[in-house]
Design brief:
2 domains; alpha/beta; Endonuclease, Chain A; seven-stranded mixed sheet
Length: 404
């Protein structure tokens, strides 16, 4: 069962987690009531979101918490590392939760992470493909334990919290290909009370992986924030039966009445595809944005199997020339859901994912201006799969899509 948390209980729950000897897997299922944001903004493309994010990090005065699937050395990674090392030297508490598969902190990125750890930055790692793992921060002599609850559950999240006051959620890693045009992605930046929900997810995840957060830091990590006027909530899929992002996507697709934009690189889940089709058939202007040449060719083939039916239903399919990696939904010009969850089985049911849902006509208009309209301008219309061999290949991958 999820931990149902009213907003007034978040700080106390964080204090409890910080003081426990061990946080269990079941404590990662966090259910939040709707909160508010003071501001919400979508930033599209690495040249837009990285400078703004670095500016926020450089202005941090108390804490920087980063949960990142892919944080690797390179032009972008090195800029972030330099900023984080500088903040740690100023006494700012800097903590990272990274995924072994995405960031490889004990392998190809080891020298990079050794530098971060030597500067006083705490790094904990999710290791979804190892049966026995150390329980504690990288660089410590942490005891090993059986990784029964973590096996197969990649930490695919990308979220940043600065001073407990500014939150970022999006689809991009801290990697060069999100800045140089190869991958096209976005982040949503929020301020206000909803940031406390992001912070609690980070605290729970850090403690589950054996990281430490002194209880006397909780007040600073969860500052009292004035009420916002933008309805917002954080949704967090942790492995288990409680999957609020998956449920929210289904509800959003089923509830669309006028317009629906779906942005996703891997669209293979038959249930979600049927929901997109039904939206178009009931008269909703439905647009599906996908990459023209996805980096996962198996998922791309499975997805293309459904193009003919979607197009026949009236769905506009737009294939972006870059590797479109963003994951977002905009319903009826006012309901925006964005974050890390793909429309395939692993994201919807097995991975750690995090999204933020914001009800704001202003944010939806920003999304249309900054993402959808430019994307349509550079994309090509999607088409059904042609040729007997290609159709058979596409059908075969669609059949095994729950395993992809």
């Amino acid at each position: 069962m999820p931990h149902d948390l009213p907003n007034t209980a978040i700080r106390d729950h964080a204090r409890q987690l910080a003081g426990k000897a061990r946080v269990e897997h079941t404590e990662l299922a966090l259910a939040f009531e709707e909160s508010t944001a003071s501001s919400a903004e979508v930033l599209v493309g690495g040249t837009a979101f990285y400078p703004r994010l670095l500016k926020d990090l450089q202005a941090a005065t108390s804490s920087v918490h980063i949960n990142q699937f892919g944080f690797r050395p390179g032009k972008v990674g090195d800029r972030f590392a330099e900023t984080l090392v500088s903040k740690a030297s100023e006494g700012v508490a800097v903590r990272l939760v990274v995924d072994r598969n995405g960031s490889d902190p004990e392998g190809s990125s080891k020298e990079f992470y050794d530098r971060l750890i030597a500067s006083g930055i705490q790094v904990v790692t999710s290791r979804a493909t190892k049966a026995r793992v150390p329980f504690g921060p990288l660089g410590s002599e942490a005891p090993a334990h059986w990784n029964v609850r973590g096996l197969g559950h990649i930490d695919h999240r990308k979220a940043i919290v600065v001073d407990g006051r500014i939150g970022w959620v999006g689809g991009a890693g801290i990697e060069d290909h999100f800045e140089d045009g190869r991958f096209h992605d976005l982040f949503v930046r929020v301020t206000g009370p909803v940031v406390s929900q992001l912070q609690l997810v980070f605290v729970a995840s850090t403690r589950w992986l054996g990281g430490s957060i002194p209880p006397d830091e909780i007040e600073a990590l969860f500052p009292t924030l004035g009420p916002g006027d933008i309805p917002a909530v954080v949704l967090h899929n942790a492995p288990g039966r409680y999957r609020p992002i998956t449920d929210a996507i289904a509800e959003l697709l089923d509830g669309a009445r006028e317009t629906l934009d779906v942005v996703n690189p891997y669209v293979t889940d038959r249930g979600m595809i049927r929901r997109i089709e039904r939206a178009a058939r009931r008269g909703v202007r439905t647009r599906l944005f996908v990459p023209a040449n996805a980096n996962n060719w198996a998922c791309a083939a499975a997805q293309q199997f459904h193009h003919a039916r979607l197009l026949e239903a009236g769905v506009e399919i737009w294939e972006h020339p870059a590797m479109l990696h963003a994951k977002a939904f905009v319903r009826d010009g006012e309901d925006v859901l964005a974050g890390t969850c793909n429309l395939e089985a692993w994201s919807l049911r097995r991975f750690f994912e995090i999204d933020v849902r914001v009800r704001s006509r202003e944010l939806a208009a920003q999304f249309d201006d900054r993402f959808s309209t430019p994307a349509v301008a550079v994309s090509r219309p999607g088409a059904p799969v042609e040729g007997a061999k290609a159709r058979a290949r596409s059908a075969a991958f669609a059949a095994i899509s729950p395993l992809l």
